[in-house]
Design brief:
Elements lengths: L2 H10 L3 H9 L26 E7 L20 E7 L2 H11 L17 H7 L7 H10 L4 H8 L3 H19 L4 H9 L4 H8 L3 H10 L5 E5 L12 E5 L5 H6 L1
Antiparallel strand pairs: 1-2, 3-4
Length: about 250
């Protein structure tokens, strides 16, 4: 077992350590009850209707002389986990959870880099790579070019592209109900939307509440609502119906 096992248990609702311990003393999977549903057994594969993003917590703000270059050596002192129904929103949630006073893929200091310097930075595997990729996309570097340099799968690069494209829409267009709703579904905070749209955060919040654009809550229940559950936990999302009400029904 490792700390990643605890994260995987939280992500799936499946108590890996508890199940592993019972197996070690002689139980089989079909003899171990799922504590969340109280009906299914541990041999049932968890069904997930959400995505998880894990981002390591790097200590480079404390150890300022340490190299930020990443490799096989363990450098993270922790990690954050975020849940949502789409990858873009989960990424944005995870960024905020790092508590680095950064709430989006915008990293102001990267604006000082030239296009060639930014492209060169793509070759380095460091703790700011996520933001460097986003800034390169803003500068017009194509997904294909970034993939050829980083070898990161285009699926993930396109998710970052979707976030950057929403930034551009918020900068260039008048904030409408539809645009605000889409931005919230991609994980943008009211403050980030306000900054990009050049209006006050108070106005964004009022517009959101007036149009009933509020977060709902979905369950982590190991079964995607296929069974009644006893002890689920919840995550917020702007992308779905409220499953708290479904449970009460």
């Amino acid at each position: 077992m490792s700390r990643s096992s605890a994260l995987a248990s939280k992500a799936t609702g499946y108590p890996i350590a508890k199940v592993a311990t019972k197996i070690a003393i002689g139980y089989t999977l079909d003899e171990i009850e799922n504590n969340i549903t109280k009906k299914t057994l541990a041999c049932f594969e968890p069904v997930l209707d959400y995505v998880i993003v894990k981002i390591p917590k790097w200590p480079f703000n404390k150890f300022i002389t340490a190299t930020k270059e990443l490799g096989t050596q363990m450098k993270a002192t922790g990690e954050v986990m975020a849940i949502d129904t789409n990858l873009e929103s989960a990424i944005m949630k995870a960024i905020r959870s790092l508590e680095e006073n950064i709430d989006s893929l915008l990293l102001p200091k990267l604006e000082e880099y030239s296009d060639s310097e930014l492209r060169e930075q793509l070759k380095h595997k460091d703790s700011e790579r996520l933001w460097i990729i986003a800034e390169n996309i803003r500068r017009g570097i194509t997904i294909d070019e970034i993939h050829n340099i980083t070898m990161i799968d285009k699926f993930f690069l396109n998710k970052i592209y979707n976030i950057v494209r929403m930034e551009e829409k918020l900068k260039q267009r008048e904030l409408t109900k539809e645009l605000l709703e889409k931005a919230k579904q991609l994980g943008f905070t009211d403050s980030t939307i306000a900054k990009l749209s050049d209006i006050s955060e108070k106005k964004v919040k009022k517009m959101r509440l007036d149009n009933k654009i509020t977060a709902n809550y979905k369950m982590v229940d190991t079964c995607a609502l296929e069974s009644d559950v006893q002890t689920p936990y919840y995550y917020s999302s702007y992308n779905t119906e409220n499953e708290v009400n479904l449970l009460r029904k």
